[in-house]
């Protein structure tokens, strides 16, 4: 039973070849491409509105030099949103439920932000390791604590996204299994469980969108400290 629950998070293979690359690239084909017409269709208009609103909210507290990261973080937001929501469809695979992928994204982007801060303003970046007004006796301990918290940031980013998606998928699978098992034994209870399953699916869709936004928002906050 335990293995069957976690089988949905295994990378699909065909002839011993992993299909993770196809699972990542294929949803991008569904996005509408810009046209030469004066008026866009509804899907392209909705996509542009979502991108403009999300980008304006993310980069609102960031200084103008940090706006160079707008294209990268906007693309990351679309990528995470697509991967998270596409994994809710039946017979699909969620690449962002893999800790290795999330840690790779979080670690590389966090390292880029830290290196940027050390190159542009090293004094200001190192100043975050020691809070202002701290007692002199506590300075070594505070520096160690702040350094550990700095290196924990990419781990927290990757684990948060993986844990939320994994927990939601497991809860949906358990509820759907219980609904199917009680359909012939207790049909009334199965109906209520089916309603609960529908509500859980809506909640998981909201979680998929929110977690993608939180991931990019935290990266923007780290960028704000180093720009």
General description of the model:
With 227 residues, the chain is mainly α. 69% of the residues lie in helices and 2% in strands. The protein has 8 helices and 2 strands, in the order H-E-E-H-H-H-H-H-H-H. The chain has helices at 2-6, 20-25, 42-58, 70-86, 99-120, 122-127, 139-181, 187-226; strands spanning 13-14, 17-18. The longest helix has 43 residues, at 139-181.
Strand order of the largest sheet: 1-2
Which band does the percent of strand residues land in? under 5%
Q: Biggest β-sheet: count, sense, barrel?
A: 2 strands, antiparallel
Average pLDDT taken over every residue: 80
Distance N terminus to C terminus? 49 Å
* Total beta strand runs: 2
Q: What fraction, in percent, of the residue positions are helical?
A: 55-70%
Spell out the helices and strands N to C.
HEEHHHHHHH
Number of domains: 1
Shape: globular
Count, helices: 8
Which stretches are low in confidence, meaning pLDDT under 50 for 5 or more residues running? Answer: none
Helices and strands: which structural class?
mainly alpha
Overall radius of gyration: 22 Å
Pfam families: ATP-synt_A (PF00119)
Main location: mitochondrion
Family: Belongs to the ATPase A chain family.
GO cellular component, one term: mitochondrial inner membrane
